[in-house]
Amino acid sequence: MFVDDLKTTRKICLAILLGVIQLIIIASFGAGWTSGNHWYKLFYGLPGMTAPYSTIIPYPSGAAWWYGLTAIVMYLLLFICAFYVLFTVAQVVFPDRIPFDLKMIVFIDVIFASIVTIMLLIAYAFFAGGYNGVTNIKLVGVGFGYCFWMAVASSIFSCSVVIISGLSWYRNN
């Protein structure tokens, strides 16, 4: 069974972890702006785009430049993580066609997780810094503080992947 293989188990766990990180990203960015109807604007004061433009990572119509940059980084992260999950599936399905040894695959894990962590931190720096110290921003059920702390949690998870993969790569060298 494939779970008995340590390399395959590690790859599957890493893919699941990165999938969870992406779900956290979608939840934290999509929670407040997924509906941009008249009542939403009236009660919450945030202009939003109506579906289908606000379904995955919504972009409020009156947002500043930093929000657009954050959304672009999030789309890039989704693309990179989807590509990496496909790479992981290819390693599981076609183990003989991937010519890398275990050390090279772990090194790729370290590089990938480092890139994801840096992109998350850059995106959340723009996300958190774009409010210029505004403290009276409130949403019913989900506030911007909640989104920010979800972002911090996902960055910590991604950083832990970097550390674990880096230690594994160092140990195998």
TrEMBL record:
Keywords: Membrane, Transmembrane, Transmembrane helix. The keyword Transmembrane applies. InterPro entries: Claudin-like. The chain crosses the membrane at residues 12-33, 64-94, 106-128, 148-170. This is MARVEL domain-containing protein. The lineage of its organism: Eukaryota, Metazoa, Ecdysozoa, Nematoda, Chromadorea. The gene is clc-14.
